[in-house]
C-alpha cells in the first residue's frame, strides 16, 4: 500500500514539474487536490493557476498548428504503440513530449511550427485520440502521417503539404526579379538621367 502511494506521489511530482494542471494530475494519480496544491507550491513556489483546457478544434485549427500537433502525436504513438488509441499511456506521453520539445527547440529559429505544445495540450490530444475526436491519417502524395479532427473541415488536408505550398509561394515572391532602374523610371514617366540629350 505504501509503495503504491509512493509511486503515485512520484508520478504526480513528475507531472507537476512538467507543468500539468493539478486537476489533471488528480485524475491521473488519484491523489487529493489539497495534496497536489501543496506539491505544486513546493515545486514552483506559487499556487496553481485555474483555467479551462483547450479544445482540439483550437489545437488543430490551422495547418501550422496541425503540423505541430502531428509531430508531438507521432512521437507519442512511437513510444505508446497502437494502444494509445484505446487509452492514455502516461509514460509514453511524458517521453514523447520531452523528445517533442527537443525537436521543437531545433525549429525555434525559423518559427516553422509556432510555439510548442505544453503537456496539458498534449494530454488533450492524447485523450481525444482515445475517443475518436482526433484521427491518424496518412497523406497519399507525401506519405507522411498526420493527425486531424474527426469533424474538422481540415480532416482531409495534409498540413505538411499545405505548409510546403505556402512556403513555396513566399519563396517565389521573395525571389521575384526586380525591375531595372531605367525601365522603372520610364514606366513612371520620369526622365532617365543617364540618357543623352540632343539639341
Automatic annotation (TrEMBL):
The yes or no answer to whether the keyword Iron is present is no
Gene Ontology MF terms: DNA binding; metal ion binding
The record's annotation in SUPFAM superfamilies points to:
FlhC-like (SSF160930)
Q: Name one Pfam family in it.
A: FlhC
The superkingdom listed in its UniProt entry is Bacteria
InterPro entries (alphabetical): FlhC
The GO annotation for biological process reads: bacterial-type flagellum organization; positive regulation of DNA-templated transcription; regulation of bacterial-type flagellum assembly
Q: Which UniProt keywords apply?
A: Activator, Bacterial flagellum biogenesis, Cell projection, Cilium, Cytoplasm, DNA-binding, Flagellum, Metal-binding, Transcription, Transcription regulation, Zinc
Where are the stretches annotated Disordered? 169-199
User: What name does this protein carry?
Assistant: Flagellar transcriptional activator FlhC
